[in-house]
Amino acid sequence: MTTSSADWATPMQPAFIKGAADIEHRGEALVPHRLPAWARHYYSDPGLAMAESQPAGVRLTLRTRASWMELGTRVTRFGYVGMPRRPEGQFELCVDGQPYSLVTPKSAAEISFDLHSGKTHQQGGDISIVRFDDLPEGDKKVEIWLPYNETVELFDLRSDAELLADAESDQPSWVHYGSSISQGSNAASAAGIWTAQVAMQTGLDLVNLGFSGSALLDPFIARVIGQSEADLISLKLGINLVNSDVMRARAFGPAVLGFLDVIRDRQPDTPLLVISPLYCPIHETTPGPGAFDVQALAQGQIRFQATGNDEDSATGKLTLQSIRAQLAGLIHRRMSTDKHLFYLDGCELYGPDDYQRWPLPDALHPGPEAHQLIAQRFIERAPATGWARSKLG
Question: What is the pTM of this model?
C-alpha cells in the first residue's frame, strides 16, 4: 500500500471492536468471536464453530475527521462442494448511523465442506485492503459492519486523519439469541440484517448471538447470555429445533424453562423477550429434519425442504405451529411470576400475508426486503409487549 506523509497508520485495537464476545490474537491480526473462549470448548460441531466465528453484528466503531479510510483484512469464505457459491461478504461503512458504502475484499481464503465424503478442503488467501473514499467532512461516528457469513482477520487501519475509539457508553446493551435469520442469512449486507437495522434505528448496542442452524437451546449459551452485561435480552426460538429434528415435544418445555432459569440465575431483572418462530410454510405443519432440495440443486439453486411427515407431529415431533402453541403457554405461565418476561408471536414480525408479498427466496430465510420489514415490525411491536418500552417506544 502506498503511504503519503499525510497518512495515519493506526494499529488495530480491541477498543475499536464492538459486539464481539471475545477477540483472538492471531499473529498481527485480531479475530472477533461471538462466543467467549470458555464456551468454544463446550461443543465439537463444525457448524456452530463456523457460525460463531462469522462476525454478524460485529463492527468497528470510530470517531474521525478522515475523508478516506483503509482496513487491512483477510476473510475466509465457506461453501459446500458441488453447491452454488454463496454471495461474497461485504464490509459496510455507516456514517452517523446511516449506510454509506459497501466494499467486497478482492481476495479471500476458502473452506469447502464435502457433505458426501466428510472431507474439508482449504485454500489460502491474501490480505486485502478494503478502502472507503469520499467520507463526509467534519467529525463523525464511523462504523464498519463486518460480513455476517465470513470469518474476518483484522490487521491495521490507515486514513488521512486520526482514528479514535468511540467513547459513547450510554447505549443500552441488547443481547439477541436466534438462528440463521438473526445471523443474517439472505440479508443484503452486514448492516441490512434485521437485528442490525433495529440497533441502528434505536441506538441499541447489539450483541448478535444468532447462530446459523444452531439455536438449539444449548445450556452453555444460556450461561453466555446470563454472564453478559445486557440491559435487554431477546430470544427467538423454534426454527432450528424443527429443521434439525433435535428434540420432541416432551423435551421442549423443560429445555425452554431450563434455558430461562440459567439466564435468570445471573440476570433476574433484565427485560427478556421470547419470540416464537416466523412463518415458514415448509415447516408449519411438517416436522424436520430439513434438507437441501436436490432438484433445485440440479438447477444451480439452493432451496430447502422438510423431510418429515405431517402425521409424525402426533407422536411428538415438533412443527412451527406446535412450537408456537407450546411456547405461548409456557411463557405466559412463567410471566405470572416473572414481571420482566415478555412474549411476542413471530408471525407478527413475518406472517402468512407477508409471505405472499415477500416469499422466502430459498424456502427458509427471508430476503433483503423482509429483513427490513422484520426490523420495522420489531421496533413497532416489541415495545407493545412491555419489553424495552422506554427504549424502543
Answer: 0.94
Rounded (10°) angle between helices 368-381 and 194-202: 50
User: What's the one-letter identity of residue 302?
Assistant: I
Q: Residue 150: what are its φ and ψ, rounded to 5°?
A: -140, 150
- At residue 18, the pLDDT reads 97
Q: Extract the C-alpha cell encoding 8.
A: 495515519
Distance of alpha carbon 311 from alpha carbon 315, whole angstroms: 8
Give the residues across from 23 on adjacent strands. Answer: 32
What is the SS3 string spanning the chain?
Answer: CCCCCCCEEEECCHHHEECCCEEEEECCEEEEECCCCCHHHCCCCHHHHHHHHCCCCCEEEEEECCCCEEEEEEEEEEEECCCCCCCCCCEEEEECCEEEEEECCCCCEEEEECCCCCCEEEECCCCEEEEECCCCCCCEEEEEECCCCEEEEEEEEEECCCEEECCCCCCCEEEEEECHHHHCCCCCCHHHCHHHHHHHHHCCEEEEEECCCCCCCCHHHHHHHHHCCCCEEEEECCHHHHHCCCCEHHHHHHHHHHHHHHHHHHCCCCCEEEECCCCCHHHHCCCCCEEECHHHHHCCCCCEEECCCHHHHHHCECCHHHHHHHHHHHHHHHHCCCCCEEEECHHHCCCHHHHHHCCCCCCCCCCHHHHHHHHHHHHHHCHHHCCCHHHHC
Nearest Cα residue to 347 out of 321, 329, 322, 386: 321
Looking at the DSSP assignment, which residues form a beta bridge with residue 157? 10, 71
Q: Which three cell numbers stand for residue 126?
A: 491474501
Q: How confident is the model at residue 87 (pLDDT cuts 50, 70, 90)?
A: confident
Share above pLDDT 70 across residues of the chain, in percent, rounded to a whole number = 97
